[in-house]
Amino acid sequence: xxxxxxxxxxxxxxxDNWEFREIIxxxxxxxxxxxxxxxxxxxxxxxxxxxxxxxxxxxIDINEKxxxxxxxxxxxxxxxxxxxxxxxxxxxxxxxMIEVVEHLPKPLNTLRSxxxxxxxxxxxxxxxxxxxxxxxxxxxAITGYDYLxxxxxxxxxxxxxxxxxxxxxxxNVDKVYTKPLGIPxxxxxxxxxxxxxxxxxxxxxxxxxxxxxx
Length: 214
What we know:
Elements: H1 5-10, H2 18-27, E1 34-38, H3 44-53, E2 56-60, H4 64-73, E3 78-80, E4 92-98, H5 107-117, E5 118-129, H6 134-143, H7 159-168, E6 171-179, H8 186-189, H9 191-196, E7 205-212
């Protein structure tokens, strides 16, 4: 498997996806804010930022075909294949990375590059699969499908290792938590309950918000 057009399409999320909603809640985007989505894929999250919150999103990705789809579907938004080191510094109010950090061969270097792009007190919000999602693994054994397993996931994080990575990169971490707990079949019975049961360190995804250390 490689990160190509098919991969991007298979991982496309609808605008009302629960993970997008969670990221939005943590991010609290404001009108006119310049927000960079790293690993934007086909651009749905950028569109959500612009359409619903009147932010000024930009997306970057290494998948040229996904970027063509994003630019075609959302022509008013800037989508580019550009290296972080080639971008101007101190220009973004916020950066998002939705299920991206686990794909990075050198995540520490990437986070340090992102830090220089952020304005003073600029914030970053990320999500990533949680390697401690034990109940999810039980569910996967039952259903035969493991969302957390992906050949393109170079490394998986837990709560502690993700926190440590961001501190080492020079960020102040504001919050880090997991969600949902992933109890088998509960989502099919009561979706609200599924997403609101306390998950401690064992939720399916880790969410983290941090800001640039001055």
